[in-house]
Automatic annotation (TrEMBL):
PROSITE patterns: NR_LBD (PS51843). Pfam families: Hormone_recep (PF00104). Residues 1-201 form the NR LBD domain. SMART domains: HOLI. Keywords: Receptor, Transcription, Transcription regulation. It comes from Plectus sambesii. Coiled coil: none annotated. This is NR LBD domain-containing protein.
Length: 201
């Protein structure tokens, strides 16, 4: 939430649209921040998913990750549900990050640009919010180009294009994450923080 609040356009939204923006942002942020964290920690090469507390999940041994009373289904079922999302993140998000040697500025910019796409499957944005999103995306793109020029990035057009090519994968991963949450809730598969109901219902 603090990251979203740091964006001036977010503060311009009415309360209901702030909630809609945050719904999409939460799904998108989980995919891009978790992937970037994993890449920076060296988890991509090992097929690990690095958690916010710097613990890690071995993608090829998901059953070993689920301990305690969190699950209400067997570990094999949980692993079958969540492993495809992990594979998707590795192949479609982390691999381009590694190939493009994404830096911190690009990570933050890409997260913001993707969050302001107003994807209709993730949130119900008003026309006013969509217009603000377009203005915000344009400004973010201009700011990134200015950054490239300032630090002397070679072939900025190619680098910028490669960055934008990641947006469809980030949105698709966000949709997958949302669908997985709905499956977890519908089939009562595990215990989770009920605040998520307010975000994703």
């Amino acid at each position: 939430m603090e990251y979203a609040k740091s964006m001036d356009p977010f503060l311009q939204l009415p309360p209901d649209q702030k909630l809609e923006f945050f719904k999409a942002f939460s799904c998108i942020w989980g995919g891009i921040e978790g992937s970037f964290r994993t890449v920076k920690a060296g988890g991509f090469e090992k097929r690990w998913l690095v958690m916010p507390d710097n613990s890690y999940v071995v993608l090829d041994d998901l059953q070993g990750y689920y301990e305690g009373d969190v699950l209400k289904v067997d570990k094999q079922t949980a692993a079958r549900l969540f492993k495809p999302a992990g594979e998707q993140a590795l192949a479609e998000i982390m691999l381009p990050m590694v190939q493009n040697k994404m830096n911190d500025v690009e990570f933050v910019t890409l997260a913001a640009i993707t969050s302001w796409t107003c994807d209709p499957t993730l949130s119900n944005c008003s026309e006013e919010t969509k217009t603000l999103g377009k203005i915000t995306r344009d400004q973010l793109c201009a700011d990134l180009y200015a950054y490239y020029a300032n630090v002397g990035i070679p072939d900025p057009d190619v680098r910028f294009g490669n960055l934008l090519l990641m947006i469809p994968a980030l949105l698709e991963f966000a949709r997958t994450s949302l669908e997985n949450f709905r499956l977890v809730k519908f089939f009562d598969m595990m215990n989770y923080d009920k605040i998520l109901d307010d975000l994703f219902d």
